[in-house]
Design goal:
Helices cover 30% and strands 20% of the residues. With 344 residues, the chain is of the alpha/beta class. The strands form three sheets. It has a nine-stranded mixed beta sheet with strand order 2-5-4-3-6-12-8-13-7.
């Protein structure tokens, strides 16, 4: 079933029929049983780890040569209230691991298997959730993903969780919004963090499927014709019923994937010297289908020398209020009013 995204109205409601909800329940039960029979475990090993309190919102993150992004990443999520970062470092060689070990609020884990053998990181994440405990909220993100939500300048993740708990909602959907720079902007001061952060404010398609909310579009579809799934669920209550299933974009149980409260993940894939990272990803071969997505980008870079991301709906990022006004995130009522969850 098609839906509008960006939202046309601040009171956007995700409404599904009784039949659609029953279909989601049946699909979730079927895939959950299959996953239970095929449950895989994987070894993760701590380089440094301490117990956490269930009341903490711990951030579970994967890293692979992210030393350029990590200082801003840690700063951003500390501002949002994260007090413990749990990193699985996938054989970084650029000083990422050393940077993480120097931070007092960061636990660092490794694994004897690589990203592709960990089902593109899903098994690592599930192993870490089990290590740190069930029946609690986690932030589940990559090192190049920055979560924004309505009011995040003055409200912490604990405030968001309080709203979700009162409404019986166990996940915060957040599509990835790819960030890029113009050629002139990327050169400001030689520091990409000082450059204007640009993004596509339009050009997305949205659909309600049996397994969750599907969002596609942005520069990867516009430029490369790709059909990447953008929706993720970065703030998630993890309990015995949960699994990352066949895709991190559609966690089980599927019945929890239809929250009317949304954030957005600003995604810094095309950031700084992204050409070097793209070539490294191709050489590493750890991503989906032999890193096919990265191969397409690398080929475009070799052919043209650069990628011109800017088009008529390119917009400069100015903060969460702008994302709400554009309809890319939903309003959040922090005054205690219960949110309708009839779509689930």
């Amino acid at each position: 079933m098609k839906m509008e995204y960006p939202f046309k109205s601040p009171a956007q409601e995700i409404s599904r029929s009784l039949g659609a909800r029953a279909g989601t329940w049946l699909e979730s039960a079927k895939v959950s049983m299959r996953r239970a029979r095929q449950r895989n475990t994987i070894k993760v090993e701590p380089l440094r780890a301490w117990p956490t309190r269930p009341s903490e919102i711990a951030a579970v993150c994967l890293s692979r040569n992210e030393v350029a992004t990590l200082p801003e990443f840690l700063k951003h999520y500390r501002r949002l209230g994260v007090t413990r970062f749990i990193f699985l470092d996938d054989a970084s060689t650029d000083g990422t691991r050393e940077l993480l070990l120097a931070e007092n609020d960061v636990d660092v884990w490794t694994s004897p298997v690589r990203y592709v053998d960990a089902k593109r990181g899903k098994l690592w994440r599930e192993a870490l959730f089990n290590e740190y405990g069930l029946d609690r909220w986690y932030l589940n993100v990559d090192a190049d993903e920055f979560l924004f939500y309505d009011g995040c300048g003055g409200h912490s993740l604990f405030d968001v969780v309080e709203v979700l708990n009162k409404s019986g909602i166990k996940r915060l959907p957040a599509p990835m919004i790819d960030i890029y720079h113009s050629d002139d902007g990327a050169a400001v001061g030689g520091d990409p963090w000082k450059a204007p952060h640009l993004f596509d404010a339009a050009g997305y398609t949205a659909e309600l499927t049996k397994r969750g909310i599907s969002i596609k579009g942005g520069p990867r579809r516009r430029i490369f014709g790709e059909k990447n799934e953008l929706m993720k669920y970065p703030l998630i209550y993890w309990d015995e019923a949960c699994s990352l299933g066949v895709s991190i974009h559609q966690p089980l149980p599927y019945t929890r994937n239809f929250s009317p409260i949304w954030g957005a993940l600003l995604h810094f894939k095309f950031f700084g010297d992204y050409g070097t990272k793209i070539e490294a990803a191709v050489a590493d071969g750890q991503h989906f289908n032999g890193s096919m997505h990265y191969r397409a980008i690398a080929e475009a870079l070799r052919k043209n020398g650069k990628i011109d991301f800017v088009f008529e709906h390119t917009t400069r990022f100015q903060g969460p209020n702008q994302l709400r006004e554009l309809g890319l995130i939903s309003p959040i009522d922090y005054q205690g009013h219960r949110i309708s969850t009839k779509a689930a």
